[in-house]
Amino acid sequence: MTNDAFPPFAFNTTPSVRFEAGAARRFGAIAGPILGARILFVTDPGLRALGLCDAALASLEEAGIAVTIFDRVEADPSLATLTAAVETGRAAGVTGVAGFGGGSSLDVAKLAALLTGSGEDLDAAWGVGNAKGPRLPLALVPTTAGTGSEVTPVSIITVGEEEKRGVSSPLILPDIAVLDPELTLGLPPAITAATGIDAMVHAIEAYASKSANNNPLSKMLARQALQLLGAHVETAVFAGHDMAARSAMLLGSMLAGQAFANSPVAAVHALAYPIGGTFHVPHGLSNALVLPHVLRFNAPEAAGLYAEIAADAFPELAHEDGTQGRCGSFIEALAALSKKLGLPAQLREVGIGEEHLAKMAADAMKQTRLLVNNPRELREADALAIYRAAW
Ligand SMILES: [Fe+2]
């Protein structure tokens, strides 16, 4: 086989994954040997108040581990929050970090482990591959099925009012991801729907990514993710206590995370960021609002790829003939799915005025790190046309 037929790629993921209903209750036994005697437990005030952390904390105590809790992580976590987490960990002389929660808590935990372990300057670590390490031992426990942060090498922090900065480095992949679907049983329908669509977008964008590192492993994982997410998202939203559906969603979101961690996302995410950053619309919903419109724009270049995965998400589309027909039906089925799940379909429904669209299009163009992966080249006028269609 020649090199052309099998181009080189790199694939990094979390080295140890524990998927087990009830794993949080045994967190001390599972993660204790990795994290050491004194740990920083990073979470958010909402989960704390709900008591969702209690079983994991009790198991750590049972394992004889001294726990310092940092429970001040907010949505779109700020630099001030990260700094406070690092200072809390340093003051306690922690030997490891546990992140417990949605993407925000996991992102803060990743950088807290890095900065506490290495003492390096965060300003020099922003960007791709600039972190030096070493980090402290790190365990991540997701409580939503969406971001896949437990298997991605990225952490996004809000600097100043609304600037999002990221650190991307295999160094911040955790030592272990602990996936306990029981933790997701109580997620409200709106969050289940938005995070579920986000995970599907990760799989779709990873599969069609123009990244030079798009690879057979990411493609395989993306397809398996779409099969799980497509088959179970409705049940997870409308019958939240269905363990089979919750398990499939948590597993699917992790597989999609492994896919896009190595074959990065593109214009759906690039156009979603200005919606989230300026108007504080949750990340998954921001993606859902632009998803069908970006895929329609991409179709002239990506119809073949979308047609390949259409029946993974929606098995009934296997009977559709022809690439164009199957691609079109896939996009319509995604739009219909968002609606069925109760998500708003138009930007105007989430309080965005038409006068903001031009600024959003200009802001989306700053996401060059994502736009380079889009299967069709997208300019500012295209972004504006997409926002208008979504408005
Ligand atoms: Fe996402």
Overall description:
- With 391 residues, the protein is an alpha/beta fold.
- The chain has two domains: 16-183, 3-Layer(aba) Sandwich (Rossmann fold); 185-390, Up-down Bundle (Dehydroquinate synthase-like, alpha domain).
- 53% of the residues lie in helices and 11% in strands.
- It is built from 15 helices and nine strands.
- Strands 1-9-6-4-2-3 form a six-stranded parallel β-sheet, sandwiched between helices. The chain has a three-stranded mixed β-sheet with strand order 5-8-7.
- A hairpin with a 3-residue loop joins strand 7 and strand 8 (163-168).
- The mean pLDDT is 95.
- Bound molecules: fe (ii) ion.
- Fe (ii) ion (FE2) binds at residues 198, 202, 269, 283, 287.
Tally of individual domains: 2
What's the helical proportion of residues? 40-55%
CATH architecture of the largest domain: Up-down Bundle
Q: How do the SSEs run, as a string of H and E?
A: EHEHHEHEHHEEEEEHHHHHHHHH
Q: Main β-sheet, in a few words? A: 6 strands, parallel
Widest beta sheet: strand line-up? 1-9-6-4-2-3
**Percent range for β-strand residues:** 5-15%
Low-pLDDT residue spans: none
- Name the average pLDDT: 95
**What ligands does this structure carry?**
fe (ii) ion
Task: Assign an overall shape.
Answer: globular
How many E-type strands?
A: 9
CATH class of the largest domain: Mainly Alpha
Per CATH, what is the topology of the largest domain? Dehydroquinate synthase-like, alpha domain
Between the first and last Cα atoms, what is the distance in angstroms?
A: 49 Å
Please compute the radius of gyration using only Cα atoms.
Answer: 20 Å
